[in-house]
Amino acid sequence: MSPTLPTRIERLNYLLAGLLAAIGVVFLSAPYALGLTVGAALSALHFSGLRWLVTRVRTLPEKRRKGAAMLFLPHLLVTMAAVVLALAYLPLSGGAFLIGFSIFFISIVLGVAIESLSPETEGSSSEDASS
């Protein structure tokens, strides 16, 4: 995995969220457009938070990683609370919200596919030969 893959996935996540929101606003009724937009926005923010946490934990010394890894729990709790609050209090379609939140998976697949199809760098080919 290249160090740029999480950043590429994050950018794809924001790009897909914007496209999905624009499509929803133009072609769908308000509850569906809102569901797509809020779901996609929460998904993109969730992945950005995960990328930030993973980057921070990986740069810490080995002794501090376990404690820092506990920060994933509050992050997931905040994400779950945001999802519950959005579904409970916003006039949106739950199905459209689920579709919007699912862009997380689509951006991961696209990011990995783009990386696997891109030409290898000199450093990665020497790593593969030694394995």
Task: Write a structural description.
The protein is mostly helical and 131 residues long. The protein has one domain. It has helices at residues 5-27, 30-59, 62-69, 72-89, 94-101, 103-117, 122-130. The longest helix has 30 residues, at 30-59. It starts with a helix and ends with a helix. The model has no long low-confidence stretch (mean pLDDT 86).
Q: How are the elements arranged and paired?
A:
Blueprint: H1 5-27, H2 30-59, H3 62-69, H4 72-89, H5 94-101, H6 103-117, H7 122-130
Helix pairs in contact: 1-2, 1-6, 2-3, 2-4, 2-5
The sequence of SSEs as H and E is HHHHHHH
H/I helix tally: 7
What summary fits the major beta sheet? none
- The general outline is flat
Secondary structural class: mainly alpha
What's the overall average pLDDT, rounded? 86
Can you count the beta strands? 0
Residue runs with pLDDT of under 50 for 5 or more positions: none
**Which percent range describes the beta-strand content?**
under 5%
Distance between the termini: 14 Å
* Domain tally: 1
Helical percent range? over 70%
Radius of gyration: 18 Å
Question: Could you name the key traits of this structure?
Answer:
single chain, 131 residues, mainly alpha, 0% strand
